[in-house]
Every structure is written in C-alpha cells, then in structure tokens.
Amino acid sequence: MSSLNDLKRKDLFQSKGYINGSWVDSSSSKTFDVVNPANLDRLATLPEMGASDCDKAVAAAHEAFKTYKKTSARERARLMRKWNDLVIANADDLALILMLENGKTLAEAKGEVLYGASFLEWFAGEAERIHGEYVPPANLNQRIITMRQPIGVAACMTPWNFPIAMITRKAGAALAAGCTTVWKPAGETPLSALAQAVLAQEAGFPKGAINVVTTLNNVAEVGKAICEDKRVKKMSFTGSTRVGKLLASQCANSLTKLTLELGGNSPFIVFDDAKLDSAVEAAIMAKFRNSGQTCVTANRIFVQKGIYDKFAEALTERIRKLKVGAGWEKDVFVGPLTHDRAVEKAMSHINDAKKHGGQVVLGGSPLERQKGYFIQPTVITHMNREMLTTREETFAPVVGLYEFDSEEQVLDWANDCDVGLGSFIQTENIARMWRVSEALEVGMVGVNLGLLSASESQFGGVKESGYGTEGGRHGIEEYLVWKSILINVAN
Ligand code: NAD
C-alpha cells in the first residue's frame, strides 16, 4: 500500500491553507478531513475556511496585483517555465498525492501531472503573445491602438476529478496574463492544489499572487464570498451545471467575468463502417478514464444496428478483463469513485435503466471490498431514451449502449439534451465524419479516438455546459481586458 510517507519531498504535503505567502489555519480553527477513497483512511486534516478567510485571500491577491501586473511578459514566461520544470521534476510525488486523494491509478495520476504541466508550458509561450493592434483611423488627425491588460484578481474553483490539471489550466492562464489568483480546490482533493502552490512559490511567483482557500463543508459560503467580492474580477469554475448556475447568479451583481466548464453528456457514436477493435479501445479510454468521472466521459454510447451486437460483445469482453482496485495495486485499470455520493448516483442510474428495460450484461452493483467507494464496471444493453442516463451524466464506470438506425436519427438523439460539451464519433467514412462533426451541438468532437483534450486546443462547451474557453490560443483571453488609446496628432 502507498502512503504520503512515500513522498520523496515531504514538503509537498501541506495541511494548511495558503494566504499571502504563509501557510495558515482557518480563522474559526475548524477543520475537515481528506479521505483516501480506496480505503477510507484519513489522509490529512485541513482548515475549514470561511468568508473571513476568503476576505484575507482576496485582499492579498488584490494587493499583489498592483505590482504583479507590471511584470514584463518575458518575466512571467520565465516564472511559468520554472513552475513547469518543477512540476515535471516532482511528477512522481505529485502523482502519489493525486492518486491517494482522488483514487485514480498511479499511471493515470502520472498522466494527469504531465498533462497539467503542459498547460504551464503552453501558457509560458502565450504570455508573450498577448498582442494589441494598430487600428487604421478614419479621422487622419487621430492614431488608434488597442492593448490588452490583465483583468485583475482571478478566482480558480476546481473540481475533484482533475485536481492538478484544472489548477494549471486556470491559474496557468491567469498568472501568465498578469493576474493574481485565489484557488478554491474541491474539498475532497485539496492536497494536489497545495502541492502545486509549494512549487509555484518555489518557481518565484510573488507573495499574494497565489492563495489557496481550503474548505469542504463551507463550500457554499466560500463560493458566495468569492463571487460577491468586487475585488475579484474573474471567476473560472469547473464542476456541475447546478453549481455553475448558482455561481453565475452570485457573480451577476458585480458583473464578474465568468468561465464555466460544466457538466456534459457526451454521445459516443459508432457507425457500421467503424473499425471494431479501435472503436472498442476508444470507448474504453473515453469511458473508463478516471473511473468514468470526466466531464467528457462517453455517457451515451450509440451504436448502429449493423455493428451493435458485435460491438456490444467485444466491448463487454474487454471490460470484463479490466482490473478494479486501489490505484497502487498491480495492473489496476479502474479505481474507486472519489466520493460516496458518486456511488449512490451510479446505482440510481443502473436501477433506473433496469426499470425501463435495460439489460445488465456485466456488473451492476458496488464492488465487494471491505472499504472504499468502488463500483463494478457495468455494461447495460437495450438502453432507451426514457432512462435517466439519457439526460444526466453518470460519472461512473457504467456503459449504456443504445442502438440506432440512421445518421439522421442518431444526430437527433445526440443533440436532444440541455448540455453540449464533448462527443466522439467512430467512422471510416470521411464525408460522414465532416457532416456529423459539424452537426453535433457540442464544443468538442473526437474522431476515431477516446481522449479529447490537449493544452494547445480550446476546451469548452455550449448550451448548459457553460461558456468561455480554456487552453489553446483563446484560454488566456479569458483573463484579459481590452483598452483602446486614441491620440490626437493634429498640429
Ligand atoms: P457538486 O455540484 O456538489 O460539486 C461540484 C464541484 O463544485 C465540487 O468541486 C465542489 O467543491 C464545488 N462546489 C459545490 N458547491 C459549490 C458552491 N456553492 N460554490 C463553489 N463551489 C461549489 O457535484 P458533485 O456531487 O461533486 O458531482 C455531481 C455531478 O457534477 C457529477 O456527477 C458530474 O456530473 C458533475 N461534475 C462535473 C465536473 C466536470 O468536470 N465538469 C466535475 C465535478 C462534478
């Protein structure tokens, strides 16, 4: 079994909040526990912060912004590169912390650390490409230029499913743009964010540029305090649509600029002409990464009539071989779910599918283990559109297979939902690939693959999956404002 004692660098484990360059307790002295979801061992006890702690964190970021905004883009790029190098140098330790608090396997955790670092490297480059414009004036007595400036204090509220990469995708962009930050990691997985703060501090970011508010039970109070604080100019949240809507309403009064990366309900469409083996492998990646807890997880797997039986059988056999267990156990591919609510939700979806005619051909119940939030990898055939999973994200290793006839029908079904984040299509027909990619009402389409995200590509959704975009060339713009300067040059 692995534990935090195995860390090579012990200082990467921190159990306090981080405000204005110091590790601090909550002003109420209250605490909460962080638990390993694979065996329910307590990993750490952290400060349960509240509104008054947020006030201090925002004040520190607000003060630091006065000087940090004046750093040169080159200087910020160097800080970002140093941070990136430190993350890579400490990847094993970061992966260990991540595995222990989130439950994903060690291999996956290592993958997330490197993926997380890729945002730091990417935004190090983007820091120096924040260009303005020379605007040809209609009035020849004028000259017009536009410039872009950092928006101010940015709040980064990150979820428990990607505790490293969501910090770097948000805070990496913000810090590269010249903003200072307040991080509010999910209460289930705050240790990864705290370890990142250690490394960012070591990279040389000034005091107050990074602040971390830790909370589990006070999350509503903390979220509200940050959103309603007029010194916070930008709020970026990844999590459920329910919470995203709440935060948007709380930001309305101060008109705080928002990026919302919310829930999805990704269709994964397998056409008759798909390559069977690679479609199965893509489905495994798209569904089982992080035990099904990704916002682009293949939630509705639509399979065309001609290939349905073969695909269902091949996928089920492949899933039967997936080993389930704690992230540190040998050959484990599917870890536990991160919290107990997730097990309840998955079971309610399985039971609802059964009630509406779904046939469970594999799994279907929690895994029999002494402890931990485990669920058996589950395959349900004969899915129909009456079922809860048709409308809600399952967020668990539960595969539901729907059979369809035509391209037109599957597009209708795929688009018939309130959210639109990721999607996947499996086809060897290039004309169909274009038609379907263009017609899907989503922010991202994966063609003949099972992984959707890259630091150099925009990530974001449409409809109730939120607005704003992260990563790519446009991710940094979320943290910038435009200013135009008009100059009278008349004699
Ligand atoms: P939840 O809505 O309770 O919490 C989601 C996240 O929001 C957590 O990180 C939590 O710390 C934070 N949060 C909750 N209330 C908040 C508030 N008032 N202010 C600020 N932050 C707040 O969801 P959950 O039970 O953890 O998961 C439920 C479902 O949400 C999942 O099954 C999944 O569908 C979705 N989800 C999506 C993502 C994603 O990556 N888009 C991440 C987490 C959860």
UniProtKB/TrEMBL annotation:
UniProt domain Aldehyde dehydrogenase: residue ranges: 23-485
Catalysed reaction, written as an equation: succinate semialdehyde + NADP(+) + H2O = succinate + NADPH + 2 H(+); succinate semialdehyde + NAD(+) + H2O = succinate + NADH + 2 H(+)
GO MF assignments: succinate-semialdehyde dehydrogenase (NAD+) activity
EC code: 1.2.1.16
Entry's Gene Ontology BP terms: gamma-aminobutyric acid catabolic process
Domain of life where this protein originates: Eukaryota
Active site: 261
UniProt keywords, alphabetically: Oxidoreductase
One GO CC annotation: cytoplasm
Pathway assigned to this chain's UniProt record: Amino-acid degradation; 4-aminobutanoate degradation
Family to which this protein belongs: Belongs to the aldehyde dehydrogenase family.
Protein name (Swiss-Prot/TrEMBL): succinate-semialdehyde dehydrogenase [NAD(P)(+)]
